[in-house]
Predict the structure.
Amino acid sequence: MSAWIREVELTFPGHLLTEYHNYPPFYRDPQCAKDYSILADEGDGFREVVRVTGNYQRHRKHTLDAPVRVSKLRIVVHATNGDPSAAIYEVRCYS
């Protein structure tokens, strides 16, 4: 089964134990993905459609250059902002 997607939204983990306005400016949560790639399988293997470096935001929205018909989506976290493990809380795809 495959579907057309044009937008991918990602939510990464983070320590939100205090109120948001108490964090210093440009706070980089150690659990949040810093460098990552989004790869799409269009039936002939995976192809990178998004690459991000230096991220510190928990919620990211990526609009692809053109709609892609995918059967599988893969997200590879290359580095976090300090935590030894990586995680993704939510992935949403829209056409």
Strands lie at 3-11, 33-41, 46-52, 59-70, 72-80, 90-94. The CA atoms of residues 8 and 93 lie 5 Å apart. The first strand starts at residue 3 and ends at 11. The mean pLDDT is 90.
